[in-house]
Amino acid sequence: MKSDMNTNTPLQPFTNRLQDDAREAVQTATETAIGAANHASQTARQALHTVSDTAKDTIQNVRTKADETYRTVRAKASETAVATNQYVRQHPMPSVLGAVAIGVGLGCLLALSARRRQPTFREHFAEDPVDAAREAFYAVLAPVAHRLRGSYENARDSAEHALDKVHHFNGARVADSVTDQLRRVGGSLRFW
Question: 0.90 exceeded by the pTM?
Fold first, then answer.
């Protein structure tokens, strides 16, 4: 049985209509997707421009504020320098004595910080290495000591248990048992 594509069947008009509708639906979906993509791209560009403009404005505002702050601080520092210069000219002795006191104080602090205690020869070459070796030795022996302590505690517990048994030991009953056994042995030895 050979099927021919050009053969008209009673369903052919419906099939053609379905194919045309499917092509139109694909075309419409493609156009809608392209339109949505273009719209999203345009919206993203607008958002990017808005963010860029806002960032530029913010940077400009920060620069302006920084310049104003710099000018204000510079003016205050200049005023303070002028006032200090006038005070030193009007009162030279307290200013000089204050500067000397500050210099002596800073010198003493620097001298004290420079005189840190240096380790002696013995500390540097004998005690420090011995301390380091001791710490290493302790680190190695710590697990052994832990196990020994556990064994000691087990032995102590066993000794306490044995002492409790000895304490509650009924010697008379054991002596009677031994005496009975000796009589039996003695009875079997009478043949001599």
Answer: no
